Structures are given as C-alpha cells and as structure tokens.
Amino acid sequence: MIRHFLVCGALALLALVSGSRSSSARQAPVSDLDTTGHRADTLRADTSYYGPVTIIVNNSEGHSKVKAVLGHADKDKKDKNIKVSWLGFDLGWNNYADRSHYGSAEVEAFVPGPPKATEDEFSLRTGKSVNVNIWPVWVKVNLVRHYLSLKTGVGVEMNNYRYAKPLTYVNAPSGTYIRYDTVGFKKNKLFTEYLTIPLLLNLETDPFHDSRSFRIAAGPTFGYLVKSRTKQISKERGRVKNNDAFNLEKTRLGLRAELGFGPVTLYGAYSFTSIHRNGLDQYPFAIGIVLIGNQGW
Questions:
Q1: Which end of the chain is more exposed for a tag (fewer CB within 10 A), N or C?
Q2: In angstroms, rounded to a whole number, what is the distance separating the alpha carbons of residues 263 and 294?
Q3: What values do phi and psi take at 126, rounded to 5?
C-alpha cells in the first residue's frame, strides 16, 4: 500500500512542479507600452530555487539573461500559492527505541547466541550513527494566507547504525539471523535507504519576512526500502560489504517535525515501523539540522 502511495505521490509531485514552473513563467509582467508610450519587448521571468541559491531567468524577445542570487530575496515569491525548492540536505544522528522482548522464543530464533541477546548487545555508537537525508525537491502549497501551508516532497532517508558489539547478519537458506562474531571490528554498521514522501502541515509566524519568522512543521512520512547493506572492517578480514534485505521492513510509516527561525531549521524523525520484520522490535529516530533546504521560499 505504501509503495503504491509513493508512486502516486511522486507522479502528483511532478505534476505540481510542472504546473508551478509554468505558472511562475506566466506571472511575470507583460507590457505592450513602456512609460514613454513606445512599444516594449515582452518580458518573462522564471525563478527556481536550488537550496540557498535563487536562479532567475529573464526572457525577452530573442534574448535570455540568467542571474544567480545567494539567498531567497525575491519579493514576489510569497504571493505564489505553489512554491518549489530544489535540493535539500539534512545531517543528523540516529538511534532506535528498543522494545524487543529479549528472552522470548522469537528473539532467540533471530539472535540465537551465545551470548544471550540483550538490549545492551544491540547498543550503538551514537556519535558515529549518522542520518543523511537528500531531498531533490520540496513543494509548498498555500492553505491559509501563507501562514498555514502543506509541505511535501520526495527524497531518500539514509540511516547508518554503527553497532558497538561484533554483530553479523547471516543469510542462511532458512532465513536471516544475527550472530555474535569472533573478531573485533573497527567498523560494523547496518545501512538502510528509504525512498520517502513527507506530508507536513507548515505554520509560519511571518511568511513575508523569512529572517524574522518562526516556523514549525509536522506530519507523516511514507517510505519504501530501496537499498540496505552491512559494512564491516577488521584486521582479520579487511573490508567486507554485504548487500541484502536482512529481514528488514520494506515499507515504513514515520513522523517528521521541523522547528526553525530565520535561516536555521532543526528536524526530528521517528518511525512507527520497526527496522526488522520480525525477531526484534527496534524503532528508529533521528535528530539533526537542515543544512540546505527550504528555510526561505
């Protein structure tokens, strides 16, 4: 179901972006006569946002001028009911809330041991468990006088879970299980990448002045697993990568929240879906900062 939603959502976003760009080109002033009474060239301006950079293309009859501006200083941008921002980038840290029933038959079948599986055995190196999100496009749709808007987009959420203990995923004919390895790893991580569509309600205190506006946004996210792998580095085995599904959930339902003022935006994310389909109940969360994004539209 979530996979179908992602496909439909991506198609809808493409339609919104296409319509927004066409509308942006038509909204520029067109005049047949200038202030002196002489006929003036027809002008058309098309504006796009790539992270913190604004690209303005002015098209006259037979001529095009391109101007790049750092920031979002377009005075008319706040009047658009559909706004598009290109290329967003988040950087943060992730962990998970572990609600696994250790000692149960289900956990012991997935993590047979020895030693016996415990929450401590699945602890992470928090400082090295990094969350990176890349959003090729964000779209904001005005709902109530630009103070309240709907914010959506499409991107990939990438989570790196750096295990503190020597855990290894094993792909056996009977299914995937996790064992405690006999070597010490310099690096031991599980990587997941989800194609994600967020659907956020966005509230701004001063939508017409980015530099002094507080922003808060929250809403659900819908993800589909597109890549997963483990990476281990040890003296005994060198560098080992393994690409597999690892009993991971294919779809993910989550929550994303943003809090910002001026050019600074913080984000938090939580998944209502466990990392694994069975065996362990671990619910990932992340916090971080929006390095490149839609702070000013």
A1: N
A2: 9
A3: -60, -45
Reported residue count of the chain is 297
Q: CA 226 to CA 131: how far, in whole Å?
A: 16
Of the candidates 47, 101, 43, 41, the residue with the CA atom closest to the CA atom of residue 72: 47
Model pLDDT, residue 208: 87
Q: What domains lie within the chain, and their CATH numbers? A: 2-26+42-79 (no CATH), 83-292 (2.40.160)
Tell me the sheet residues that pair with 172. 175
Q: Position of tokens 């009911």?
A: 81
pLDDT in tens, 244-284: 999 999 999 999 999 999 899 999 999 999 999 999 999 99
Mean pLDDT in residue range 29-37: 43
pLDDT tens digits for 37-78? Answer: 444 444 455 666 665 567 777 776 667 777 776 555 544 445
Sign (positive/negative) of CA torsion 238, 95, 114, 107?
negative
3-state helix, strand, coil in the chain (%, to 5): 15, 55, 30
Distance CA 211, CA 260 (A): 10
120: three-class secondary structure by DSSP = helix
Q: Which among 244, 243, 250 has a CA at the least distance from the CA of 195?
A: 250
The 3 state secondary structure assigned to 243-265 is ECCCCECCEEEEEEEEEEECCEE
Alpha helices in the chain (DSSP H): 2-26, 105-110
